[in-house]
C-alpha cells in the first residue's frame, strides 16, 4: 500500500509543478511567446474554437507574433477574438495575417507581473501541500484499518518519505519562480 501511495503522490506532485510551469508561460514577458495566445477563443464555423485550431502562430522576431489563419475568411474573427481576450495587445491586420508587436515592459508592469508569478507559485505550493495532507490522511486511515493495520513505524516512515517529496517539488516550484522573475526583469 505504501509504495503505491508514494508513487501516486509523486505523480500528482509532478503534475502540480507542470501546471504551475504552464501557468508561468501564460504570463507575458517582453519577448514574444505563442503561449500568451493559448486561451484566446475565436468564433468560427458556428462555435468558439481555440486560436491554435484556426491559425498558425509563429515568432518571426523576438518581439513579434505572426498569426496566419488556415482559412483567410476567419481573419476578422481572429482579430476580434484577440481584442476580446486579456492579452491587451492590438493586432495589426495586413489582409493575409495578423501581427502582434509585443511592447517592452515598463518597471511598474514588471512588478505587477512578478506579483502574478508569486500568486501562481503559491497556488502550486498549496497544491503540493494538499497532496501531502491527503496522503497523510490515507496513511492514518490505513493505521486504523481493522483488517490490516499499518504499523506506526511504517506510517511514520511513509510520512517522512511524503515530506521529502513535498520538499523536492516545492523546491522545483521555487526554481521555476526564480527563473520566471529573472526572465521578467531582463531589459
Number of helices, where a helix is a run of at least 4 consecutive DSSP H or I residues: 4
Biggest β-sheet: strands ordered side by side in the sheet: 3-4-6-5
Q: Shape, please? A: elongated
Low-confidence stretches: none
User: Structural class, from helix and strand content?
Assistant: alpha+beta
Return the string of H and E elements: HEEEEHEEHH
The share of residues in helices is 55-70%
What portion of residues belong to β-strands? 5-15%
Number of strands: 6
Oligomer state of the chains in this structure: single chain
For the termini, the CA-CA separation is: 51 Å
Rg value: 22 Å
**Mean pLDDT over all positions:** 89
Main sheet makeup:
4 strands, antiparallel
Short description:
With 187 residues, the protein is an alpha+beta fold. The protein has helices at residues 2-25, 75-84, 107-144, 152-185, and strands at 41-44, 47-50, 55-61, 64-69, 92-93, 98-101. It is 57% helix and 14% strand.
Task: Please outline the helices and strands.
Layout: H1 2-25, E1 41-44, E2 47-50, E3 55-61, E4 64-69, H2 75-84, E5 92-93, E6 98-101, H3 107-144, H4 152-185
Antiparallel strand pairs: 1-2, 3-4, 4-6, 5-6
Helix pairs in contact: 1-3, 1-4, 3-4
Structure description:
By secondary structure, the chain is an alpha+beta fold. The protein is built from four helices and six strands. It has helices at residues 2-25, 75-84, 107-144, 152-185; strands at residues 41-44, 47-50, 55-61, 64-69, 92-93, 98-101. The strands form two sheets. The chain has a four-stranded antiparallel beta sheet, with helices on one face. A two-stranded antiparallel ribbon has the order 1-2. Strand 3 (55-61) and strand 4 (64-69) form a beta hairpin. Helix 1 runs antiparallel to helix 3 and helix 1 runs parallel beside helix 4. The longest helix has 38 residues, at 107-144. It is elongated, with a radius of gyration of 22 Å. The model has no long low-confidence stretch (mean pLDDT 89).
